[in-house]
Design goal:
The complex is a heterodimer of chains A (about 110) and B (about 120).
Chain A: E1 4-7, E2 10-13, E3 19-25, E4 31-38, E5 42-51, E6 54-57, E7 64-67, E8 73-78, E9 87-94, E10 104-105, E11 109-113
Parallel strand pairs in A: 2-11
Antiparallel strand pairs in A: 1-3, 3-8, 4-5, 4-9, 5-6, 7-8, 9-10, 9-11
Chain B: E1 4-5, E2 10-14, E3 19-25, E4 32-38, E5 45-51, E6 56-59, E7 62-67, E8 72-77, E9 86-93, E10 96-97, E11 100-101, E12 107-108, E13 112-117
Parallel strand pairs in B: 2-13
Antiparallel strand pairs in B: 1-3, 3-8, 4-5, 4-9, 6-7, 7-8, 9-12, 9-13, 10-11
The chains are: A mainly beta (about 110), B mainly beta (about 120).
């Protein structure tokens, strides 16, 4: 099993450009999450999904959109990139239910907006 | 409003000694806590967790202690090894949020950089 994979690993954008980050998991997990990590801030939740076709806002959703058309994929979109969106983006997934809250993370995407 | 805080940005210990990483939280709805370890250029990996019905959970060299009255948890690593050098994040989740479920959303602390010297 590959676990959680993220594409691309690195990207440089100019202000105003758009892009989509792809997250894929092969563990048949119900829940998927997008986080951003900034120095001194820990990881902050952007959006999450509790199942195919459903999405919800997290702590810092502004400037991002998401889609979960297939259970194994969770896409994060930036419609008009801004320098404040320079960050490392992590995707995570977990099983549904209350038995465990452990999330499995991908390797991250480092995004720079100039 | 930082609901989960790790007040020590960094910690340096000698190989073989104990490493103690601390975490404080403010939200009384949190009832499940996790520790993650992160190496550079990699995603966080799960280390150990504890439910609020317990005050201690042990897994090999790693032990997590929870003090609910103080809203404080700590991670003990004994003995520390150079390979333990990484950033450690504590995270918290509330299984029940007002009016529904939290869907397992995690709130993370800022992280503590642990360096274990040979």
């Amino acid at each position: 099993n590959a676990g959680v994979t993220q594409t691309p690993k690195f990207r440089v954008l100019k202000t105003g450009q758009s892009m989509t980050l792809l997250c894929a998991q092969d563990m048949n997990h119900e829940y998927m999450y997008w986080y951003r990590q900034d120095p001194g801030m820990g990881l902050r939740l952007i959006h999450y999904s509790v199942g195919e076709g459903t999405t919800a806002k997290g702590e810092v959703p502004d400037g991002y959109n998401v889609s979960r058309l297939k259970k194994q994929n969770f896409l994060l979109g930036l419609e008009s990139a801004a320098p404040s969106q320079t960050s490392v983006y992590f995707c995570a997934s977990r099983t549904g239910g209350l038995s465990s809250y452990e999330q499995y993370f991908g390797p991250g995407t480092r995004l720079t907006v100039t | 409003d930082q609901q989960v805080k790790q007040n020590s940005p960094s910690l340096s210990v000698q190989e073989g000694r104990i490493s103690i990483l601390n975490c404080d939280y403010t939200n009384s709805m949190f009832d499940y806590f996790l520790w993650y370890k992160k190496y550079p250029a990699e995603g966080p990996t799960f280390l150990i967790s504890i439910s609020s019905i317990k005050d201690k959970n042990e897994d090999g060299r790693f032990t997590v202690f929870l003090n609910k009255s103080a809203k404080h948890l700590s991670l003990h690593i004994v003995p520390s090894q150079p390979g333990d050098s990484a950033v450690y994040f504590c995270a918290a989740s509330g299984r029940r949020a007002a009016g529904g479920t939290s869907y397992g959303k995690l709130t993370f602390g800022q992280g503590t950089i642990l360096t274990v010297h040979p």
